[in-house]
Amino acid sequence: MVDFTELKEFIETQLPDSRVKISDLTGTRDHLGILVISDAFKDKMLIDQHQMIMDILKERLKSEIHAVQLKTLTVEKAKAQGLWE
């Protein structure tokens, strides 16, 4: 079972300027919705943004995480969608 607080902090440590929100998609705590907002995604294609996050999660995907639904945004896009304060 995934500790969401620890996973959030882990991703934010690996991608220092990021903000992360994690949600449980199925109630089993191993199918996760992960929103990552970071300017590290600027000028990168969506697939490259997602690969950055999958690289961070690769060890956890081998054991504690079964599936992820990723949403990655730059700060500008997050602000436009009302997801940045």
Q: How do the helices and strands line up, and which of them pair or pack?
A:
Blueprint: H1 4-14, E1 19-24, E2 31-37, H2 46-61, E3 67-73, H3 75-80
Parallel strand pairs: 2-3
Antiparallel strand pairs: 1-2
What is the H-and-E element order?
Answer: HEEHEH
Fold-level CATH name: GMP Synthetase, Chain A, domain 3
Architecture in CATH? 2-Layer Sandwich
Oligomer type = single chain
Largest sheet: 3 strands, mixed
Q: What structural category do the secondary elements indicate?
A: alpha+beta
CATH superfamily assignment?
BolA-like
Q: Report how far apart the termini are.
A: 30 Å
Explain what the structure shows.
By secondary structure, the chain is of the alpha+beta class. The chain has a single domain (4-80), classed as GMP Synthetase, Chain A, domain 3 (2-Layer Sandwich). Helices cover 39% and strands 24% of the residues. The chain has 3 helices and 3 strands. It has a 3-stranded mixed sheet. Strand 1 and strand 2 (31-37) form a beta hairpin.
